[in-house]
Write a structure and sequence with these properties.
This is Nucleoside 2-deoxyribosyltransferase. It contains eight helices and eleven strands. The chain is of the alpha/beta class and 250 residues long. The strands form two sheets. Strands 5-1-2-3-4-6 form a six-stranded antiparallel β-sheet. It has a five-stranded parallel β-sheet with strand order 8-7-9-10-11, with helices on both faces. The longest helix is centred in the middle third of the chain and has 18 residues.
Length: 250
């Protein structure tokens, strides 16, 4: 008999899953292309609760998120292995690149090289059947779910369309801090903010061209990022090397 596929709301997104009956009860799970098994779970609940997050079609599952009828980040995937890798959420504006999927593969492979599992915001069911505002809602909760699932956030904090990092990435770092995640970031230029922007500062008033002062604490980024995060001057790989070194000393 062909096994029935369901749709589950887990980690803030919608995924296909299958149902099995074990000694522990009913499980809903998915398998990766590499054959790893992931089981949907939430601590300290009974299986009937999970059924509230199971749907027979993708559209109904999506509507439950868009209409806020369930909390989309309650369930998580538990990887079926004895020593699960630490999970890294790969934050940054690379998601806007035309070759985002190619970049995704490179970044995830780099994480694996250093013993981590990279989480990139594109692993759920396609949402191109939805209106743009609905797609935005789905993307928000999907990214929130990945941040809640991860152990570490590694963020591209280079300037994006101006002098500051991508605003969405900054929000994700703040959410990660609030959730107690480790925070790492990488930048190309390690100069302080004042050093980088001095060319547009009025020598007489000390004001930047927008008429305001520049934050001056000898930090490369706003203190609300630079203080709670480990900032690495270099590439993603340089940041992963630093992370691996720090973990080896723990």
């Amino acid at each position: 008999m062909e096994e029935i596929e369901y749709y589950i709301v887990v980690n803030g997104g919608v995924s296909k899953c299958k149902r099995s009956v074990t000694e522990e009860g009913v499980q809903f799970y998915k398998e990766s292309p590499k054959g790893k098994k992931y089981v949907a779970y939430e601590d300290d609940i009974h299986h009937p609760f999970i059924h509230n997050f199971i749907f027979k079609n993708k559209e109904d599952a999506q509507k439950s998120i868009i209409n806020n009828t369930i909390s989309p980040t309650v369930l998580k995937w538990k990887e079926d292995q004895t020593k699960p890798s630490l999970k890294i959420y790969l934050a940054g504006f690379h998601v806007f690149h035309p070759d985002s999927l190619i970049i995704r593969t490179r970044m995830i492979n780099l994480c694996e090289k250093y013993g981590y599992r990279g989480l990139y915001p594109s692993d759920n069911e396609p949402i191109d059947n939805l209106q743009k505002e609905e797609q935005a809602t789905m993307i928000f909760y999907s990214n929130e779910g990945l941040i809640r699932e991860c152990d570490i956030i590694v963020a591209n904090l280079n300037p994006f369309r101006g002098n500051e990092p991508d605003s969405g990435t900054v929000f994700e770092c703040g959410l990660g801090y609030g959730l107690g995640k480790k925070l790492y970031g990488y930048i190309d230029n390690g100069q302080s903010m004042k050093e980088r922007l001095i060319v547009d500062v009025d020598k007489k008033t000390g004001l930047y061209k927008d008429g305001m002062f520049i934050e001056d604490f000898n930090l490369p980024l706003n203190l609300m990022l630079a203080i709670p995060m480990t900032i690495v001057v270099g590439s993603l790989e340089d940041c992963l090397k630093k992370l691996a070194e720090d973990n080896s000393m723990c």
